[in-house]
């Protein structure tokens, strides 16, 4: 099978591409290599995937939000499935640059749906986000919960992706699976996320910004568990049988939470990072950031039942692995 992976230079996209190739699939990766965070890290991820995958991995730099450029790049290419992981990420940055989110996450998602429709792709798995749950005070978050009150523009664009996908599954019977990711972390992670920021600042002896005065819980999910879940879903396209799918659709469109099913107190995780770094953090307690939420907690019953997904990596194991990688990557 040949798989088109969007966002192939991203944190999850690179890891998924590498694992697809490792199991014998061929991968066509695309990425715009934008400057949201250092392109050097994205290129290093691509180099890692290329070294591991060899001829099974091909890459093209293209912005899937540019329909003409996307169509031109894919004109001579064939693929059987799509894993659409490319997006403009980040809740906080959406407050500063809202247009980037609409262009990448809404227009770009539509463009990839159109590619899937035109080619009658066997299955497209796409990235949604736990952010769609907004301020949901019912825990754990279940795919049946209402998600029409987003607390950030990023969340609103991801909910839009789900709605567009439902429409395409209804109109064109296109098999689609949306994955609501819960706080993914691990080696090769993003510099704008907490693990990188806290590890970097602790090792430098700089204060770390802790929002909501530390009263936060996150369902931290290790990258290897996420990749296993993505591939398990890719291998099981939802049937066009009229039966209700996770998320409530009766079209060939399923939506799953993909998390660790174990919300961890932020202060506990800071302690794990401190131990891995070998030094205490100087903590700068701050109020809650606009658009942020105090807790995430994934109900993963549906994805476990349908695919066998079973995360195995606790924060006590995953965060030290990240710190070790961070030190190695930066030569510390």
What does this structure look like?
It is built from ten helices and 13 strands. With 332 residues, the chain is an alpha/beta fold. It has a single domain, classed as 3-Layer(aba) Sandwich (Rossmann fold), CATH 3.40.50.720. The protein has a seven-stranded parallel beta sheet, with helices on both faces. Strands 7-10 form a two-stranded parallel ribbon. Strands 8-13 form a two-stranded parallel sheet. β5, α5 and β6 form a beta-alpha-beta unit. The longest helix has 22 residues. The radius of gyration is 19 Å and the shape is globular. The mean pLDDT is 95.
What does the radius of gyration come to?
19 Å
Number of domains: 1
Would you give the CATH topology? Answer: Rossmann fold
The count of strands amounts to 13
According to CATH, the homologous superfamily is NAD(P)-binding Rossmann-like Domain
CATH architecture identity: 3-Layer(aba) Sandwich
Count of helical regions: 10
What separation lies between the terminal Cα atoms?
A: 40 Å
- Under the CATH scheme, which class? Alpha Beta
Silhouette: globular
- Helix/strand order, N-terminal first: EHEHEHEHEHEEHEEEHEEHEHH
Helix content: 40-55%
Give me the secondary-structure category. Answer: alpha/beta
**Largest sheet: spatial strand order:** 3-2-1-4-5-6-11
Main beta sheet: strand number and arrangement? 7 strands, parallel
- Share of β-strand residues: 15-25%
Q: What is the average per-residue confidence, as pLDDT, rounded to a whole number? A: 95
Low-confidence stretches: none
């Amino acid at each position: 099978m040949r798989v088109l992976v969007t966002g192939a230079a991203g944190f999850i996209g690179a890891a998924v591409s590498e694992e697809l190739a490792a199991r014998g699939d061929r991968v066509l990766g695309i990425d715009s290599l934008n400057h949201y965070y250092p392109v050097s890290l994205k290129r290093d991820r691509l180099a890692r995937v290329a070294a591991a995958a060899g001829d099974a991995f091909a890459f093209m730099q293209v912005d899937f939000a540019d329909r003409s450029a996307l169509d031109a790049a894919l004109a001579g290419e064939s693929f059987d499935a799509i894993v659409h992981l490319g997006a403009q990420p980040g809740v906080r940055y959406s407050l500063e640059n809202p247009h980037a989110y609409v262009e990448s996450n809404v227009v770009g998602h539509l463009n990839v749906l159109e590619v899937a429709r035109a080619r009658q792709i066997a299955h497209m798995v796409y990235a949604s986000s736990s952010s769609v749950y907004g301020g949901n005070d019912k825990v754990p978050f279940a795919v049946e919960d209402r998600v029409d009150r987003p607390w950030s523009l990023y969340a609103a664009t991801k909910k839009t992706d789900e709605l567009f996908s439902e429409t395409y599954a209804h109109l064109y019977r296109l098999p689609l699976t949306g994955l609501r990711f819960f706080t993914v972390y691990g080696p090769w992670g993003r510099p704008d996320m907490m693990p990188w920021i806290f590890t970097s600042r602790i090792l430098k002896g700089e204060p770390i910004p802790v929002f909501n005065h530390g009263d936060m819980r996150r369902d931290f999910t290790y990258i290897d568990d996420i990749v296993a879940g993505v591939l398990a879903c890719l291998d099981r396209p939802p049937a066009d049988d009229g039966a209700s799918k996770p998320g409530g659709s009766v079209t060939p469109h399923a939506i799953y939470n993909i998390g660790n099913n174990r919300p961890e107190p932020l202060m506990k995780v800071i302690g794990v990072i401190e131990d891995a770094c070998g030094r205490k953090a100087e903590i700068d307690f701050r109020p809650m950031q606009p658009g942020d939420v105090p807790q995430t907690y994934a109900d993963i019953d549906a994805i476990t039942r349908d695919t066998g997904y079973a995360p195995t990596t606790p924060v006590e194991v995953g965060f030290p692995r990240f710190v070790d990688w961070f030190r190695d990557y930066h030569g510390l």
